[in-house]
Amino acid sequence: xxxxxxxxxxxxxxxxxxxxxxxxxxxxxxxxxxxxxxxxxxxxxxxxxxxxxxxxxxxxxxxxxxxxxxxxxxxxxxxxxxxxxxxxxxxxxxxxxxxxxxxxxxxxxxxxxxxxxxx
Length: 119
Prior knowledge:
This protein has one domain. It has strands at residues 9-15, 20-25, 33-39, 43-48, 57-63, 67-72, 79-88, 99-102, 106-114. The protein has no helices and 9 strands. The protein is mainly β. Strand 4 (43-48) and strand 5 (57-63) form a beta hairpin.
């Protein structure tokens, strides 16, 4: 029954003593999600089917209130890695030009990595 729904969920695995929840999906979801693992209150990992997303996102990790890490594959601009770090900022702390300050007094540090040549 679950495979016929638009979410294409075919397996759900719960490990309540570890606080982990896994969900596995068949190809054909609009977002291209292959599987996801959630650790309650701390981290979410997502893996996507290859060539199913226009932005080339292959893998994503979200650590709650700390960072977001994304791995890309096959992008035209050759972006392969992006990391966003969230840090609490003090009013006395200097903000560098590459950092962004969000409402709520958090500093965002954005790191990108590109492939220079493919030989």
